[in-house]
Write a structure and sequence with these properties.
The complex is a heterotetramer, with one copy of chain A, one copy of chain B and two copies of chain C.
Chain A (H helix, E strand, L loop, with lengths): L3 E6 L6 H10 L3 E6 L9 E6 L19 H11 L4 E4 L1 H8 L6 E3 L7 E9 L15 E8 L3 E3 L2 H9 L3 E6 L21 E5 L5 E4 L17 H12 L5
Parallel strand pairs in A: 1-2, 1-3, 3-4, 4-11
Antiparallel strand pairs in A: 5-8, 6-7, 6-9, 9-10, 10-11
Chain B lengths: L5 H4 L4 H10 L2 H4 L4 H4 L9 E3 L6 E6 L2 E9 L1 H6 L1 H18 L4 E10 L19 H26 L3 E8 L8 E11 L14 E6 L9 H5 L20 H16 L5 E4 L4 H12 L3 E5 L12 H6 L5 E6 L4 H10 L4 E8 L4 E5 L2 E6 L1 H6 L11 H8 L2 H4 L8 H8 L9 H4 L10 E3 L7 E4 L6 E7 L2 H6 L1 H18 L3 E10 L6 H21 L3 E7 L3 E2 L2 E2 L3 E10 L17 E5 L10 H7 L11 H17 L4 E4 L4 H13 L3 E3 L10 H6 L6 E5 L4 H11 L3 E7 L3 E2 L2 E2 H8 L4
Parallel strand pairs in B: 4-5, 9-12, 17-18
Antiparallel strand pairs in B: 1-2, 2-3, 3-6, 4-6, 7-10, 7-11, 8-10, 9-11, 12-13, 14-15, 15-16, 16-21, 17-21, 19-20, 22-25, 22-26, 23-25, 24-26, 27-28
Helix pairs in contact in B: 6-7, 6-9, 7-9, 9-12, 16-21, 19-20, 19-22, 22-25
Chain C lengths: L5 E10 L6 H12 L6 E14 L3 H16 L5 E7 L5
Antiparallel strand pairs in C: 1-2, 1-3
The chains are: A alpha/beta, B alpha+beta, C alpha+beta.
The complex binds adenosine-5'-diphosphate (ADP) and magnesium ion (MG).
């Protein structure tokens, strides 16, 4: 029996149905949770914060959503070790809430980007990458205007040293070049596409694994990530 | 007594006068076009609801219907490109929502003036070429603003924009076109009607507060062209709020699904006036409205302003009194503001009160029905002059020696440029339905979740053809859009049209309009595609100059069942055979090559051989169904030459072709650049060639082996050069 | 580089009064939810600051005004205000 | 409404010095293309202006500072500056 993956619905997010669909594809169960709820549904063993435009992305992406009661509940659960994945707007919310280091600034090209990118798995064994190996290259779409990962140099050094860099944008052959706009289209520092917190149970990434979940959609490379989260929730607290 | 107050002597209040004037405007009443629109074929076994509703509805089996609609937002986009386009998207989505469907896909058809200078030979003798530079920059600014408005609103509201087209021509320099189409798929049993029925039922206004946005917008913006002194129209710029719309969509969908709504109508042009009068006229016949209950964004708005405000992101929903609390709870949960603004009556009157006074008391049908004109028609003198000229006589003879140069130059036309800069800014994947994304095929393909079906959608229209012959232009738009959906394996099942024309008070423009209606009719009847909805945009003129008549046609096709991802447009595998399907005629009138390379726009647009067109469409759909071809791409702007270049660019592999293989009897220029309808380029594994040829034969479609995939050039033009030719410089 | 002296210019661009300001609205709501209920009239704008070669403040100001109307602001929906000499952050 | 007097506050939020400012760069390029080659050091910021109930400027300023650090600015990448009293456009 799978654990329940909670999908918080904060006004303006829009990927919740897609996320639920992808979770069901790997045999998981999910439940939507209203943003005014102060607790996660009982049986919740992992959280997937979907993408979209919470509060219209007004002020800054994620800046208003992070005050939602459900985000406080997620913060408490995360402190107790619950696996949490924030994708796109979900990642932005986690950064704004201080649950993940760094910030997501406007894409360097100043344009919104909806396209496939290649990602290199940097850290395997986390609740969202335990079905993958370091060095695996995945093709997954991005869809954002504010996805340029930014943090002070010391923070980034610390992330690298502590295996907190989850994914990097790369070329199809796995090479990483932060200055190459083809492979690192939003200009993220050191091509960082996803990070985790120090404990490793909270992860954020800009690309949308749920959009790469069926071959008819162009790629299934997102499935191992969704599956990692779903399967880790069956044995809650791995990592 | 001053003239303005004459209406009072006639017994009308200020509010009533304002209401009649917006409702009887061109935009709301279709007063100039209605006498013609009735000729459009709108029946078909699959049509559930046709023109006249907020959106058309087509049955696709399994209890499901496709809801589809197209709208223009030309004038607002000229005044403020970002907000004009953004509010255009917002408006069309509410039309789909009003029917009870979640809008799940959006498409855009855009027209601007030239963003780059035309080749020296193409500069029209206009005399004001000195201003070209600033003008070019302005067109880029408009195009970028419109595209970011669509991106900004569509992405944030959570509706993917999965297809469209962007074309450029000097005719649109002073009047860009921004047409948006949207669709949704719904269970037909949940269809909503725009009716206020049941005496005593409660009228809710849901969504944004009401401000002074676009007061008189429909009459000011949609009913007049542009002159110097546009500033006066500026205060009516409307600002869209996709976040508010997103909440509105979720709240309304839940109201509809839980059966709490007995009728719904979006607030678009003419705002509350239109929504209340139309739902009352279509329902129990009467409504009492209390303006004091309307949440205002600004203090002190007089009744006529509240009644005609076009503030975005609002819906009217009718509920039974016993369901009121439940309905308000739903709205509260989605944080969509809602208030009770009225009651359904059977009085036969629309009665509006403010501060205890009755400010309006009229029969709603008198507002909703509007008036109609049968305006005079006159064939424009230019048409005979233009069609009398033979383009071939004004164009050079292309030879093997010059074809490479001719093709390279043609590929620099902005109309052949890659649109990736635009669609990359659009979320085109939300809802996990997009099987063929923008740039991957001739039409977008969206699977229908929960079934093994898919929809294919294409949007097309060519203004230059309309200048030469509006009837053929309109017909060709239907032909191209239908061919595009066939090319990805679909059978066309319905069409919507957006008629962008000049000033209808000119008999020449009305003639063009009437001809275009006949062209649509001819094409839709011939191809068996009913028109289930449309939109008319008149007064597309600047300083007295009308745009070329530009009908834009959106066609929805059904793929049933979807066998997998259809073949794309690109050449992929070395050694595959390249084939041209369909007969090529001498059709250079209005062609891209004649216009871009030589500035020649004359002669007649291609005439369509309808049985051949139909056969070719059926052939394409069968090819995709059988999975026989490696690539399929229809021939359109620029002819076979451009089509081959596009196939090579899309797949990253060139081809070696024999230019005498598909039309040996006509000149090389016509073989390469003719825009004859009903043709395509295919690449097939050598082993499948005979099967394809056999299939073509059974459909009666001529087909020619013209070469082989391979190499990194086409016509000897290196792919790298083509790549830079199609990379936009704006 | 030339020897023309430069002026520091800051232009502030705001939505025209009376236009709807959804972003300002959303922020106002968020602030109220955080306990700042009394905060009203919230509006969002942009600033652009730069160094401009100009011999005097008036020249700088009129150059900046032209920059605003040509590219920095959209006069249809925005007003702008120019400050010369003041240093930004 | 209460009788507490209000103050007009404008906060300006800018990318931290040393961080990339792609928007500033883009504007600098666009200006150069239009003939303003000499314009340098272009930086872009956002402003949030509002009316705040406060008895005096200092109270207003400290309230606004709290608003900035809680929500209006992101301290990881942004600096802010507060101006009390000045009316905007
Ligand atoms: N404005 C746009 N928005 C979204 N997609 C677009 C737009 N313009 C072009 N496209 C996409 O780019 C591809 C090529 O467009 P186009 O050259 O107009 O196709 P065709 O000539 O076959 O009609 C199509 O997939 C189309 O949907
Ligand atoms: Mg096509």
């Amino acid at each position: 029996m799978s654990g329940l993956v909670a999908i918080p619905i904060i006004p303006g997010v829009n990927c919740e149905h897609d996320v639920a669909h992808a979770i069901s594809l790997v045999g998981g169960e999910s439940a939507f949770v209203h943003h005014m709820e102060a607790t996660l549904p009982s049986g919740t063993q992992a959280v997937y914060i979907p993408g979209g435009f919470s509060y219209g992305d007004y002020l800054r992406a994620g800046a208003i959503a992070r005050f939602a009661p459900i985000v406080a509940a997620i913060g408490r659960a995360a402190a107790d070790g619950m696996p949490v994945l924030g994708v796109c707007n979900g990642f932005q919310i986690l950064c704004e809430a201080g649950l993940l280091p760094g910030a997501l600034a406007r894409n360097v090209g100043l344009r919104f980007l909806c396209q496939d990118v290649h990602l290199r798995v940097e850290t395997a064994g986390t609740p969202v990458t335990h079905r993958l190996k370091a060095g695996n290259v995945l093709r997954i779409p991005i869809n954002h205007g504010e996805g340029c990962y930014t943090a002070p140099t010391e923070t980034i050094d610390r992330l690298e040293a502590g295996n907190q860099v989850l994914l990097r944008y790369c070329r199809p052959d796995g090479t990483v070049d932060p200055d190459d706009r083809e492979s690192n289209p939003n200009g993220s520092l050191r091509s960082i596409a996803g990070v985790t917190n120090e404990a490793g149970n909270v992860a954020g990434m800009m690309p949308h694994p749920e959009r790469a979940s069926e071959s008819i959609l162009g790629s299934v490379d997102g499935l191992p990530i969704v599956e990692s989260l779903v399967k880790v929730s069956t044995t809650a607290g791995v990592a | 007594m001053s003239e303005q107050h004459l209406h009072r002597q006639l017994g009308l209040t200020d509010a009533e006068l304002a209401m009649y004037s917006v409702m009887w405007s061109e935009h709301c009443s279709y007063k100039s076009s209605r006498v013609h629109l009735g000729r459009l074929p709108s029946d078909g076994p699959q049509v559930v609801l046709g023109p006249g509703e907020n959106a058309g509805v087509v049955d696709i089996g399994d209890g499901l219907g496709v809801v589809v609609r197209i709208e223009s937002h030309n004038h607002p986009s000229y005044v403020e490109p970002y907000q004009g386009a953004a509010t255009g998207v917002g408006g069309i989505l509410r039309d789909i929502l009003t029917m009870g469907a979640r809008p799940t896909a959006c498409f855009d058809s855009l027209r601007f003036g030239l963003p780059v200078e035309a080749p020296a030979t193409a500069v029209a003798p206009s005399g004001d070429s000195g201003a070209a530079d600033d003008e070019t920059l302005r067109q880029r600014w408009l195009a970028n603003g419109v595209v970011s408005g669509i991106s900004g609103y569509g992405n944030a509201v959570g509706v993917p924009t999965v297809g469209g087209e962007i074309l450029f021509d000097p005719t649109y320099a002073g009047n860009p076109l921004v047409n948006v189409m949207a669709l949704g798929v719904m269970e037909l049993e949940h269809l909503q009607r725009a009716q206020a029925t049941g005496e005593g039922n409660i009228v809710l206004l849901i969504g944004a507060s009401t401000g002074r946005d676009g007061i008189g917008g429909v009459s000011v913006l949609a009913s007049s062209g542009f002159e110097a002194g546009d500033e006066e129209k500026r205060p009516s710029v409307q600002v869209g709020d996709p976040f508010e719309e997103k909440k509105l969509i979720e709240a309304c969908l839940e109201l509809f699904r839980s059966g709490l709504s007995v009728g719904a109508q979006d607030l678009g042009g003419a705002g509350l006036t239109c929504a209340t009068s139309e739902t009352a006229a279509g329902g129990s016949g009467g409504m009492d409205v209390d303006l004091d209950a309307v949440v205002l964004r600004e203090q002190g708005m007089p009744a006529f302003e509240i009644l005609t405000s076009e503030s975005q992101e609002r819906m009217l929903v009718v509920v039974e009194p016993g369901d009121l609390d439940a309905a308000l709870d739903v709205c509260a949960r989605w944080e969509a503001p809602a208030c009770v603004v009225g009651r359904v009556t059977d009085s036969g009157r629309l009665r509006v009160r403010q501060g205890g006074d009755v400010v309006c008391d009229v029969p709603p049908a008198s507002l909703a029905e509007g008036i109609r004109y049968d305006r005079p028609l006159a064939r424009p003198a230019r048409i005979d002059a233009l069609t009398a000229r033979d383009p071939s006589a004004e164009l050079p003879v292309v030879t093997e020696a010059t074809l490479r140069e001719e093709t390279s130059l043609l590929m620099t036309s902005p109309n052949l440029a890659s649109a990736e800069w635009a669609y990359r800014q659009y979320d085109h994947q939300l809802f996990l339905n997009t099987v063929v994304r923008p740039g991957e095929g001739d039409a977008a393909v969206l699977r229908v979740m929960g079934t093994d079906k898919a929809l294919a959608v294409a949007l097309d229209g060519v203004g230059r053809y309309g200048r030469l012959d509006p009837r053929r232009g309109a017909a060709l738009a239907v032909a191209e859009a239908s061919r595009n959906v066939s090319a990805v394996g679909a059978v066309p099942i319905a069409a919507v049209d957006c008629m962008n024309f000049g000033n209808p008070e000119k008999p020449e423009v009305m003639w063009e309009f009437s001809e275009a209606v006949d062209g649509l009719t001819e094409a839709c009847e011939a191809l068996g595609v009913p028109i289930v909805g449309g939109n008319v945009s008149f007064y597309n003129e600047t300083s007295g100059r009308d745009i070329d008549p530009t009908p834009i046609v959106g066609v929805v096709g059904l793929v049933d069942p979807l066998p997998g991802v259809p073949s794309g447009v690109g050449f992929e595998v070395l050694g595959d055979l390249v084939l041209v399907a369909g007969a090529t005629g001498v059709d250079l009138g209005g062609s891209e090559w004649a216009w871009w390379n030589y500035g020649v726009v004359c002669g007649s647009p291609p005439a369509v051989d309808w049985p051949a067109e139909r056969a070719h469409n059926a052939f394409l759909a069968d090819v995709q169904r059988a999975g026989l071809a490696r690539s399929v791409h229809d021939v359109s702007l620029g002819g076979v030459a451009v089509c081959l270049c596009e196939c090579a660019l899309a797949g990253g592999v060139g081809a070696v072709v024999d230019t005498t293989a598909w039309a040996p009897a006509i000149s090389l220029s016509a073989a390469l650049f003719s825009e004859t309808s009903g043709r395509s380029v295919l690449s097939v594994p050598p082993g499948a060639a005979e099967a394809i040829e056999h299939l073509a034969q059974t459909h009666g479609v001529p087909i020619f082996r013209v070469g082989e995939v391979g190499g990194d050039s086409i016509f000897g033009i290196p792919l790298a050069d083509l790549e830079s030719a199609v990379t936009p410089r704006w | 580089m030339s020897d023309t002296p430069t002026r520091h210019v800051t232009v502030t661009i705001r939505p025209k009064v009376g236009l709807r300001d959804p972003e300002g609205n959303a922020i106002e709501h968020a602030l109220a939810a955080l306990g700042w209920q009394g905060v009203t009239n919230v509006h969002v704008g942009r600033t652009v600051s730069f160094e401009l070669p100009a011999g005097d403040d008036d020249t700088a100001r009129s150059e900046a005004a032209e920059m605003c109307s040509r590219i920095l602001a959209n006069p249809v929906i925005e007003d702008f205000q120019i400050e010369v000499g003041g240093r930004g952050v």
